[in-house]
Design a protein that fits this description.
alpha/beta, 11 helices
């Protein structure tokens, strides 16, 4: 299981939100590049870079994406506000992979073309609340069930999905193991949301996930990437 460190950027700072709420924000650093280097040095397999400003339609941090990708050697996957083919291709020129959510649901044919052209570089974000997928910065429900969404996009050539439990994201309340395990039966799943301890890592691994994203837990010092790597 790969260990992925999250770097969420808002206003040029490294932050963590609780349940995606920008009003419930903790600023951890004013140096995103330094933070990325820190997680690389700790042994992270990949960096998950989230542009929260782009996700919330409040501008973007594209230049920082380029700086971070150029400053570290591990792969960088970029998420947040990538809602057009042009934006996706721009981000693919800056990073190893892109994570698509809103665009995937609203423009499936464009997604199909992107996935075919960029094999293994497109990850679909399945952000769920109450078993239904949310888009547009977690503000709009698609009405689609998690399993149905995964099946739909797998048929388009996507082979990895980032599954986030919105209710648990940034809360340290533990992962939604049952949803992760159900999804991992039919697809490669990156687990995100609620990780708070090494016990949670064991649960995610046992659920069959291909990767785990560490966010608030590493920023608050509850787990270390080194210890998680030893378990993963």
């Amino acid at each position: 299981m790969k260990v992925i460190a999250a770097v969420d950027i808002m206003g040029g700072n490294v932050v963590r939100l609780v349940r995606g709420d920008p009003a419930n924000k903790t600023v951890y650093s004013s140096d995103p590049v330094g933070t990325a280097k820190k997680w690389e040095a700790s042994g992270a397999d990949m960096l998950h870079l989230v542009d929260l400003d782009a996700a919330l339609a409040n501008g973007d941090n594209a230049d920082l994406t380029t700086k971070i990708a150029g400053a570290i050697k591990i792969p960088v996957q970029v998420a947040g506000g990538i809602r057009t083919t042009e934006k996706a291709e721009e981000m693919l020129s800056r990073a190893s992979r892109v994570v698509l959510g809103t665009m995937a649901f609203h423009e499936p044919e464009e997604l199909r073309k992107l996935a075919k052209k960029n094999l293994g570089r497109i990850v679909i974000s399945i952000d769920q609340a109450g078993g239904k997928v949310m888009v547009k910065g977690w503000k709009e429900s698609t009405g689609t069930k998690v399993a149905d969404a995964i099946s739909q996009f797998a048929n388009m050539g996507v082979d990895e999905f980032l599954l986030t439990s919105i209710e648990r994201d940034g809360t340290l309340q533990g992962p939604d193991v049952s949803t992760l395990a159900d999804a991992a039966v039919s697809a490669r799943i990156i687990a995100s949301g609620g990780i708070s301890s090494l016990e949670d890592i064991v649960k995610v691994r046992s659920a069959g996930c291909s990767s785990v994203i560490l966010g608030k837990a590493i920023y608050d010092g509850r787990v270390s990437i080194e210890r998680v790597k030893a378990l993963a």
